[in-house]
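[audit] Reproducing an earlier prediction to check determinism. Same input, same settings, fresh worker. If the tokens differ from the archived copy the diff job will pick it up downstream; this log only records the rerun itself.
[audit] input (270 residues):
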Amino acid sequence: MPKFLATRDAAGKPNVVPIVSLDAADERTLIFAELFTWKTRTNLATDPRVGVAVVTEDPRAWSLRGRFREYVESGPYVDRMNAKELFRYNAYVRVSRVGVIDVEAVTGAWRPSTLSVAASLVRTMLLGRLSFGKGAASLPARVADKFARTRSAKVVAWVDSQGHPCALPTFSLLPTRSDAMLFGAGGLPRDPRELGPGSPIAASVITTEPVAYQVKGTFSGIRRTVLGGIGAMHVTEVYSASPPLAGKQIEMPTTSPQGRTRDETVRVGR
């Protein structure tokens, strides 16, 4: 089941990545393995507030708000994590530290119909073509491909007016043929209109392989059309969010004078 954890850095910018080990220890406590989470770990040392998003295949989705408590290196939480099938039969990975989150509230819970999800995807695709045309893609091809998959799990994240990170599943999040990402703004449990144009925003995707990516940028606002509201983000940074390159920044493609897109490369992110 795809699960995402949103944090904020010292500058107030959101970061959101899949944390497949995230588990409910009880009704008020979440735990996760501290593996391949360098940016998340740095952010938690600066600000303990977190947002959580959970998505199922049904589809159903939940958003939660919480506060990071601590990392523990022994005890029942570590034992519980290592007993999970994900780690129990893995000879190469042993969990030595577990993060503990106190749940403060469930901020959204919903179960959209298959028809409504399909309709939202169609609206997003149509509006993307109408607004951005068929020009050259500005996202790395392998990243755009993952975000374009309708059966991948995707979320957007931002920092709300109280400074708390929010993670929100959105089934209609799609890339355009530009440096933009679009998502249907209707029927969401949280209203992204609390963001002003130019506000920092992030999005993440994980597929069944599993392969995960994160994109960061700025919120472009919500466009009202006859097909409904559509939210947009301008992408400025792209990161791998799965091992072995978790946290590595991916170069955005550049176009040569001949109009061909240069090969993208991977470099260490901030």
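[audit] rerun output stored. Observation attached for the diff report: The radius of gyration is 18 Å.
[audit] end
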